[in-house]
Specification:
Radius of gyration: 15 Å
Shape: globular
Structural class: alpha+beta
Largest sheet: 5 strands, mixed
Number of helices: 6
């Protein structure tokens, strides 16, 4: 999906009265979907994946870590999932370790085949994969995020701590 369409989605999901979760948030359904993602990644990479779920005081739901020894280049892959609109972010090593998956691939830390495996799983399970470069751009929405970050970004809005 191109950046313009992704920004439309981010703006549609941005409700200044609902910073931690959307109005009709279904915790059980989000948990089931997340569990399905973890199982899919474990099957695709042939290894157990650690995960953290139901993060409190955050607009992010959880993270899945594909272990380094299960990847072609030996770098772990982190998938962050938001409580909003099935948004997801894929990172090599950790969020912020690279300026996105393109840079991680260019530097040899992330293999394009591993990235394609994760992206395919996300797409088939109904997640919207938002590039880290877009999430790290300045937040230009109506929510008051200054108390939570000196420089609010879209990542702050949909994956960060909100209390």
């Amino acid at each position: 999906m191109d950046e313009t369409k992704l920004l439309v989605i981010l703006r549609e999901l941005d409700d200044p009265g609902r910073l931690e979760r959307p109005l009709h948030y279904d915790r059980a359904a989000t948990g089931l979907a997340f569990g399905g993602l973890v199982r899919r990644l474990e099957a695709d990479f042939g290894a157990p994946c650690e995960s953290e779920r139901d993060t409190q005081d955050s607009s992010g739901y959880g993270r899945v870590w594909v272990p380094a020894d299960a990847t072609i280049r030996g770098t772990r892959i982190v998938i962050c999932v938001s409580k909003f609109g099935s948004l997801a972010e894929v990172c090599a090593d950790n969020p912020g370790a690279f300026l996105g998956t393109d840079e991680a691939c260019e530097e040899g830390a992330l293999d394009p085949a591993d990235l394609a495996t994760v992206e395919q799983a996300l797409a088939e399970l109904g997640y919207v994969d938002v590039p880290e470069e877009l999430l790290e751009s300045d937040y230009l929405g109506p929510s008051a995020l200054k108390p939570f970050a000196a420089r609010p970004t879209w990542w702050t809005r949909f994956f960060g701590t909100v209390w």
